[in-house]
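Allow me, if you will, to draw on your knowledge of protein folds for a short while. I am sending you one protein, given as its amino acid sequence and as whole-number tokens for its backbone shapes. Kindly check, if you would, that the fold set down in the tokens agrees with what the sequence suggests. The record follows directly beneath this note:
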Amino acid sequence: MTDGEQLKQFHADFEKLKHNRDQVPLDILKTRYEAAYNAQVKKVQEGADWFFSKYLETLAFPTHPQDTAGNKWLADCLAILEADEKKPGGLRDQAKAALVDRLDLKEYENLVWQAYDRRLRRAFNPYWRRHCRWVGEPPRRWIYNRIFKKYWWPKTEGYPASGCWINRDYTGHDYRFPPDLKEE
């Protein structure tokens, strides 16, 4: 099954659960229709786990191939955060509860985003800073990134394409991961 098909299935399973809960009281679903209801809940939870993992995998952070120690540090930090999310009551359980207990897809999506944001702030941003450095003399200073091998073009009035990483000739715009460096 492709990712697109799996995503459609996840949404269809969630909508079926939501429809059943809207039409039939929960106590009847859990008694008279227990087997079918539990099977549907299991499908939704499996889809939720799949989407949670796929979302984070799709938004994987870039690394520098020669930064062995930094890459290991980043991988270790990400593993710690993932283990924390998988603990009982962690973000994964909270996300599943948003879908199954509260039937709230927006809350679920927000919790998945929170997992990404935690990884970004606690692990990737410190790693990313290691690969950004100031080059040139003031006032014509630029921030260079060793991973992208590009320069940061600050947001500049009159240049709507600014606020991104660029090559020396102002091509190759990349808006991901703005630098977080203070003036030296």
